[in-house]
Amino acid sequence: MAGARRWFDATPMGMRTVVTWTVLVHGYVAAGDMETARELFYAMPARNVFVWSSMVTGYFKAGDADEARAMFDRVPVRNLVSWNALIAGYAQIGRSEEALHAFHSMLEDRVKPDEFTMASVLSACAQLGSLKQGRKVHEFMERTRIRKNHFVLNGLVDMYAKCGDLEYARKVFDSIQRRNTECWNSMISALASHGRSEEAIQLFSQMECSEQKPNGVTLLAVLGACTHGGFVEEGLRVFNSFGAYGVAAGVEHYGCLVDLLGRAGRLEEAHAIVKSMAMEPNEVIWGALLGACRVHDNAEMSERVSDEINQLRSDGASTNDAEYIMLSNILAASERWEQAERVRRKMANHGVEKTPGCSSVELDIPEHKVRCR
Question: What's the distance, CA 79 to chain centroid?
Fold first, then answer.
């Protein structure tokens, strides 16, 4: 950007067109420097639709949705590009209801949406988990014959899956002739998150035979499926194949593997993997192993893990109250009362309190049966 700015400043005023200004403003927006982008934007002699939309997108990425909306409201003539920037911005920051409201306002403004609009709207429906709204959007797309590119098809798979209609999600997936990696990821993740681990693993096997290579997201979803389905050997095979796919294992992948081995009671293996990690294991990793110790009542391993967690704390890591409570419960369950009491005293010294468990139940009571006093 420094080089671009030097060339811009060296350009004679008479040669600076709206395109010249727009390119520079968009560059600052892409770099996340909204202060300089705003300064240049208001200095522009004339503005086109693209630079208005770029500013809207930039404010959303900076987390300032109110300023993004204020900028959109000042657009003199709104077109498809402007509306897409607003709808996509709301969807990307999780303000799904506002994204759908903007979509309906766009239709009232008689602006015809395209496939990029629909991908954002489907994402909003998926975040809300509203199958009814998602179906209406799908019907609208069919009725208006909007082109279904990969973004839209992936969005349909993701929307139906997250809204609980796995059968229709799979139907859409099977209808896609040329699936990209994101498409495979959507379906595998959907099956894994709904507890259909065996189907997720089978679909991953099909992906391995396709032209698309798994990425870190794919492998995380498959490891999650193996964990919840108890497929230990398959999980180890997948983890050991990271190098073949050119994927570097992250802390989240190690967390899944530790959880997988821990649930199976293979605590020594899980501990060895944590100790051999390429990066420093954090409290989440140790916490997963400590939780497995609790499940299998392994007090000896829990103390070793607790020592590792305490070492992290001595190095400046934050304290996690859950680990104190978990360790205390493990020791008590194995009738090691003195050690459990020591942990309880340590909890008290650190101001840790065990919160009583509670549940809430939502009752569907007809209004005419409810009386207020």
Answer: 30
Res 300: pLDDT: 85
Segment 285-299, tens digit of pLDDT: 887 888 888 888 888
Q: Which long-range contacts link 275-281 to residues 24+ away (Cβ below 8 Å)?
A: 277/251, 278/248, 278/249, 279/251, 281/251, 281/254, 281/308
Query: pLDDT band for position 321 (50/70/90)?
Result: low
Mean pLDDT value across the chain:
86
Return the closest-CA partner of residue 157 out of 128, 189, 133. 189
pLDDT digits (tens, 9 = 90+) for 303-320: 888 777 666 555 544 445
The arithmetic mean of pLDDT across residues 88-98, rounded, is 95
Task: Tell me how far the alpha carbon of residue 58 is from its chain's centroid.
Answer: 20
Is 214:189 a contact under the CB 8 Å cutoff? no
Alpha-carbon distance values, 282 to 119, 159, 240, 310, 319 (Å): 36, 33, 21, 12, 11
The SS3 assignment for 362 reads coil
Residue 359 above 90 pLDDT? no
Please give the full DSSP string across 60-95, using - where no structure is assigned: HHTT-HHHHHHHHHT-SS--HHHHHHHHHHHHHTT-
> Do 228 and 197 meet the contact criterion of CB atoms below 8 Å apart?
yes
Residue 210 DSSP class: S
d(CA 69, CA 78): 13
CA 41 – CA 97 distance, rounded (Å):
29
pLDDT at position 166 over 80: yes
Tell me the three state secondary structure of residue 97: helix
- Residue 339 predicted with pLDDT over 60: no
The structure's pTM equals 0.74
Instruction: Copy the structure tokens of residue 30.
Output: 């892409």
- Cβ within 8 Å of residue 124, ≥6 positions away: 87, 90, 91, 96, 97, 99, 100, 103
Tokens of 119: 């991908």
